[in-house]
Amino acid sequence: MTSGGGTYAVTGSASGMGAAVAESLRAEGHTVIGVDLRDADVVADLSTAAGRRAAADEVLAKAGGKLDGAVLAAGMGPSKGRERMITEVNVLGVTDLLTAWRPALAAADKAKVVVFGSNSTTVTPLVPRGAVRRLINGDTAGATRQILRRRGVTAPVAYAASKVAVTQWVRWQGTKPEWAGEGIRVNVIAPGPVMTPLLQSQLDSPQAKSVKSFPVPVREYGTPEQLAAWVMIMLSPAADFMAGTVITVDGGTEALMRTRDWPKPLPVRGMPKLLWKMYRAPKDGQVAQY
Ligand code: NAI
Hints:
- Keywords: Oxidoreductase.
- GO terms for molecular function: oxidoreductase activity.
- This is NAD-dependent epimerase.
- It is a single chain.
- By secondary structure, the protein is an alpha/beta fold.
- It has a single domain (about 5-265), classed as NAD(P)-binding Rossmann-like Domain (Rossmann fold, 3-Layer(aba) Sandwich), CATH 3.40.50.
- Helices cover about 45% and strands about 10% of the residues.
- It has a seven-stranded parallel β-sheet, sandwiched between helices.
- 1,4-dihydronicotinamide adenine dinucleotide binds near residues 18, 46 and 193.
């Protein structure tokens, strides 16, 4: 449990899991600065650079320069024809805001950040690695061109690519001295199908059959409240010892489809990279020593 009186930014606060998290935080006595397209403290469109800038600045002004945490739940589902917008909201709607908010998060005592990824990161085939690399570097136009060149089911691929990119960005940035070393804990929650307007719109679309046929071992969809409960743990002191971690809450789909892929012993070819990271780790006690 978090102790009340903190200030938290929550994107996607008007609906689904973002709304459930905002409600849980308010119930524990925190101030929530909600960001969304409508019904929010900060109304902004995260699919444009200007909207993201305005959202970042307005939140900082309302928070008075100090944020105890942030939950990045705003996101678009795999809607056909909106591939570029999916990448803008799901990737830059996270990375631009967090980059702008980092000093305010560092100003708090052990701030916590939770980013919404998805189990689609590990169960969607045909996601081009180059597109993921481009997205991590902020090149949404180049990534979208590469995804659209493949034709076929481009929206689910854009969606999965956006979530792989944002998850890898968290694992890359979240373990750096500027984040983990400054007391900020950034982690990812990766839900499977959760009954929200986003999932409902997929169930109402021509893709309903493939959504319904997706294997979920527990044989039911998740609820926004269940996911919010996990996010609340990731915002609490229980997460002080967590950085760059992905928590999958998906009814078992990922475990079923990728049983033997993880965990895996470190391959020999990974050793030079690991040694390089150990060498680069600051030795001033800011981050844990290896
Ligand atoms: P939702 O559709 O209920 O809520 C998403 C919110 O994001 C909405 O309030 C929407 O207005 C906001 N949003 C969308 N585009 C925006 C923009 N351009 N600017 C500002 N706000 C914008 O969806 P849900 O299901 O609660 O999703 C939350 C997060 O969880 C998303 O990142 C989604 O990708 C992810 N997720 C959802 C799953 C599901 O089955 N529902 C599964 C895995 C991940």
